[in-house]
Amino acid sequence: MSMFTIRIPATSANLGPGFDSVGLALQLYVTLECEPADEWNFVLSEQDAPFIPNDKNNLIYKSALFTAAKFKENELPPCQIRMTNDVPIARGLGSSSTAVVGGIELANQLLNLNLTKRQKLLIACEIEGHPDNVAPAIYGGITVSSYDGHNLESVRFSKGLENVTFAAVIPDYHVETEKARAILPTQLPYKDAVYASGMANVLVAALAEQDWQLVGRMMKQDKWHQPYRGELIPDFPKVSEVLNKHKALGYYISGAGPTMIGMFHTSTNFTNLITDLSQYNIDLLQADINGVTAVNSAPLNQ
Fold first, then answer.
1. Among 11, 67, 98, 128, which one carries the catalytic annotation?
2. Mean pLDDT throughout 124-147?
3. CA distance 111 to 222
4. What DSSP state is assigned to residue 186?
5. Could you identify which of 21, 30, 142, 189 might form a hypothetical disulfide with 98, taking C-beta atoms 3.0 to 4.6 angstroms apart as the criterion?
């Protein structure tokens, strides 16, 4: 086996009312440089070392082993994996999904499985439980997906994404996904659910038509999760006000948060926005349209 490299994009889930269904791949990456070794080992940056295991407890390895087991393989050839991680951990940009998708692709390469993207997504959904982050990490672009534990449907949009830029406003604290889910209500009044569903439907239709003005308006109309998760992200009203001031088309809490994303025309001058939000880390990102990739790979069993 020669060295190979896997690259997985960050993702942003929900886009407002598309709860647990709509996701976006972004040009921010986790890169895995893989080479044969005597035992499994992950070489991590100093920044990531306190949060990510460097052995078989790593979610990448666990996801790879889960994938292998689906094909009656109980072991994986040991590798050293040098991990370069530009995706902030527990910030709502799909850090766990990059690990899951990276692990699936790792098994795909090591065992020469030749998995289709749909096969990868099915395995990812089994691991994650829902498709909103893993689907765009695999397919790239914007995906709209549904998974009930058995049935999987997914649609990808990619046209026109070069015309919009996503300003990720990243606070310096974590929001754990479990806590962000626990704060959600167990049910909504029927009238409220119909309204929330309608906003999600219009969001998807606007994405299909590349009507970015309408997409942005729908991002701000969520009733599924943002009214509740806002309690965990006290910065959201202030950041929303600044994004409005600078003519954002729309804005939303990314995934479980705390990252907040504003969508702008790509031609926007962001200098004053960055100044007004100087207390945050801000990434100006384009959509990734390729999804997970592997290069310079050679399967072990050749």
1. 128
2. 97
3. 43
4. S
5. 30
